[in-house]
Amino acid sequence: EWLSNTGCGLSYTCYACSCQSPPAHSALRFSRSGSSCKGQAPAPGLTAALTSYVSQGGSLFVSSFDLLSRLAETQALAFMTNVLRVASYQEDGGAFSLAAVPGDPVGGGKALDLNYDAFPSGFIIDILGIVWSDGPDHLNAATNTATTYLQEDGRAVGVRYPRTGQDSTTGRVVFNSFALEAVPTETPAPNNRVAVLADALRFLAPDLVGGSSVAFDQSAYTVPGSAVVEVTDSTRAGTGRVTVSLTAGTTTRNLDLAETVRRGIFRGLLPNRTYYFQVLSRDAAGNLVRDNNDGEQYTVDTLTPLPAPWDDDLEEDRPGWTVYNDDGGTGATLPGDEDDDGGGELSGTGWRWGVPENVAGVEALSGENVWATNLKGDDIDFGISDLISPAIYLGGGNRATLRFWQYYDFSVAGGSEEDPFGDFVLEAAQVALSTDNGATWKDLYFVDGEVSADWEEVEVDLTKYLGSVVRLRFNYQLFAFNPSPRLGWLLDDIAIEMNSVPESALSVSNNLMQASFVLTGPATVTGEGMTLRTNVPPGEYVITWQPVPHYTTPAPQTNVLSIGTPLTFTGRYTFADANANAISDAWETQHFGTVTPGYTGQADADGDGVSDAVEWQTGTNPVEATSRLVLEEPTQLLDGRLRFEWNTATGREYAFETSNDLETWLPAAARVRATGAPLSVTLPALDPRLPFFFRVLVTP
Questions:
Q1: For residues 583 and 590, what is the distance between their CA atoms, to the nearest angstrom?
Q2: Three-class SS of residue 394?
Q3: Residue 453 contacts by C-beta under 8 Å, 6 or more apart in sequence?
Q4: What is the pTM of this model?
Q5: Pairing outcome for strands 33-36 and 60-63
Q6: Which residue spans within 455-564 are E strands per DSSP?
Q7: What is the dihedral of CA 369, 373, 375, 380, to 10 degrees?
Q8: Strand pairing of 86-90 and 138-141?
């Protein structure tokens, strides 16, 4: 079926998941595809065809509230992670409304209520217990993937890949965990189905859809800070550059943006260019000072980032490395200050490249050259020095790893007759990474030893920075009372590896909503609640369960995840229960001082109208009358809506339900795992002809 009602003049093709003959790649190549899956898993071959299509640059739009569950049933979660770009999800989290993430181009500023009236209803649906509003899953976006839509409790129900500011080595993807049919068609734009689909297709086909748009990588910024500006303009696709005017008050500045690897998308300064700039400063009185380098203007040169995989054996003086030395206001003599008049009392040091000379006889690991903080073995007692790597683009795989070899000696010499107390030395070394060309830095690694036995290899996972242009910073600091020929820190054979690692499905389940856990192995995953499904590389994994008050923590578990074979970790929290009342003895002891034989928990110790057993379940205090779970009378808003609110206990899950007859209860909001803050639900104006009842359910 060919459709052209997207509001942006772009046709698309729909393939039902039940089709037994998957579309050929040649059929997909010249169109944008949508896929419809209702209550069934994709047919064999369809996910493979779409995976191939997206990996070769195709664009994919999927809107389905049961696809992830169907993929899990057929052990095809790799499609979820690698194509739909969902790292993990909470099944059937629910959604009554959508709100766009501020500034997101796919969300497009929408705010709308989902309408499930047209969905099947009746006796069979009731018997099956199907509640359509529960269908949307809550999503955790994968690396370099942006959230587009949030449901009423702020949980993600839509994602897109790539996020603003990132280039994709594959195609573009938009995935919604709500059914497109639930988006109304008759409401004004942009809060209707046509606009939802149109904005998605504009993102998926920036080189084909008319019009221009501007996107930022964040909805708000701190000052000072850096912002990524991305322009989509199909009419200028292939031109290589656009000019953007930025206006603040009466000041307008023009910015040249370069076309990215995706036609029609422009971002950042043009590579391999020289830019000229001047500095303006205005004081509180409005006086303006201009510094233009005596009319010559200041300059900055932009470079083309190096592609990963990347390595440097340091045998050649390759461009791109930069050293920054700082005397810290001490006046220390630093490398390059050979003409200094000797006024500095400290002998400073800093990074230099070349053949090492030192009293320890340490040579390069390979070849002859290294980067070293005291290359010539001088007598030194001070140093603050940064070694900055070239700009490197992390693309071409789903795993990125930094590897380098280091040799260091930060030991302190012993005392002597002249100095019986020995030297006082502070020496530190650490590695950081920047994704914004040095505006901010993220710590990666620090040297925690005193002396390395020999050259040792360091490995650091950079996978979370995939799709970014990064720089590495090797920071060294030294302060000592006495100068000496310290060895310092030496580096050799620095590399960034890129790999495409196959992934398999891994699940975690337990009996307690309050539970949390850490999964370590080839990948590290943290989770909370009773279930988690995700994809990770194969290998040996260890799960460590975190303590929950009044429960016995499950023991750590170790298992091996193989390619194509799902793995499930199951934990069970238990508690001692000497009086067999289904209440933890530790909880009874904390609140009552002892475990009483024959105690059933049906008493109400604090007289608040709630039994002790119920207070155990809800996480309230059984000896404090003001501590109890109570759903107060709702507050009626000016427009007739009703707002309900109740207190919560950390880690427990809460569900809000309504009924007309006290027999059939239906959820009126998504389940929420609480943080301890009060929760609230706002309902539309109710039909005055019907009785309504409300309740809150708690899962410990």
A1: 12
A2: coil
A3: none
A4: 0.45
A5: parallel
A6: 456-461, 469-484, 488-499, 504-510, 516-520, 525-528, 531-536, 539-545, 557-561
A7: -170
A8: antiparallel
Residue 696: beta bridge partners? 656
What is the predicted pLDDT for the residue at 363?
95
Contact 545, 571 (CB under 8 A): yes
Report which residue type is found at 192.
N
Q: What stretches of 301-429 show up as alpha helix (H) in DSSP?
A: none
3-class DSSP state of 194: helix
Q: Which of 434, 390, 432, 431 is nearest to 301 (CA)?
A: 390
pLDDT the model gives residue 329: 60
- Which strands, in side-by-side order, build the sheet including 642-646? 635-636, 642-646, 679-683
Ordered DSSP codes for 421-470: T---EEEEEEEEEESSTTSS-EEEEE---SB-SS-EEEEEE-GGGTTSEE
How many Å apart are CA 191 and CA 214, to the nearest integer? Answer: 20
Q: Give the whole-angstrom CA distance, residue 682 versus residue 158.
A: 22
Low-confidence ranges of the chain (pLDDT < 70): 1-41, 43-44, 169, 207-212, 219-227, 248-253, 261, 268-273, 275, 302-303, 328-346, 413-423
pLDDT at 334: 61
The single-letter DSSP state of residue 514 is T
State how far the alpha carbon of 323 is from the alpha carbons of 69, 184, 230, 366, 388, in Å: 52, 58, 31, 22, 6
What is the structure's pLDDT at 127? 78
Helix (H) or strand (E) holding 402: strand 399-409
How many other C-beta atoms can be found within 10 angstroms of the C-beta atom of residue 377?
A: 18
Distance in angstroms (rounded) separating the CA atoms of residues 498 and 310: 9
pLDDT of residue 348: 78
Q: Kindly state the tokens that stand for 161.
A: 């890949």
Determine what percent of the chain falls in helix, strand and coil, rounding each to the nearest 5.
10, 35, 55
SS3 of 159-187: EEECCCCCCCCCCCEEEECCCHHHCCCCC
Most distant CA pair in the chain, distance: 99
Q: To which residue do tokens 């303590």 refer? A: 547
The two three-digit tokens of residue 625, written as one number: 């009358």
Q: How far is CA 82 from CA 18, 144, 603, in A?
A: 22, 12, 54
C-alpha distances in angstroms, 295 versus 184, 274, 277, 292?
60, 17, 11, 5
447: which residues sit within 8 A by CB, 6+ positions away? Answer: 406, 408, 410, 428, 429, 430, 489
The predicted structure's pLDDT at residue 54: 86
For 691, the token pair is 């009785």
Which residues face 312 on adjacent strands? 494
Instruction: Say how far apart CA 179 and CA 18 lie, in whole Å.
Output: 17
* Short-list 362, 390, 365, CA closest to 374: 362
What phi, psi does 207 have (nearest 5°)? -90, -5
Q: Is 669 exposed, middle or buried (0-12, 13-18, 19+ CB in 10 A)?
A: buried
Q: Are 219 and 150 in contact (CB under 8 A)?
A: no
